[in-house]
Fold:
Amino acid sequence: MVDFNVKTREDSLVNVVNLHGYLDAHTAPELEIVFTRFIKDNRFRVVVNFEKLAYISSAGLGVFMAYIETMRDNSGDIKFSNMTPQVFNIFDLLGFPLLYEFYNDEEEAIKKFSEKS
Structure:
């Protein structure tokens, strides 16, 4: 069994998603359910904390690509925080830093949403 879980919490007007374990083709549907629920609930500001994510595959990356446009079309965004160098390297190789905002700290990412309000 692949070790993966997603925990979410609301922080004022921002939803924080904490990822743990391995995000791949087998576990990506769990994250898709979370983003689908955010959209249904009109919650378009998301910070994803990668601190405990050990691995991400192209299927995991695809989840973020699938939802970013909807978030931004609704005055929101997906911001990334607390990424390990190994996981960041995968995002960097695929050009994600041109499309997404990366922060060392979750609080810093959350604060960026309030600066834009």
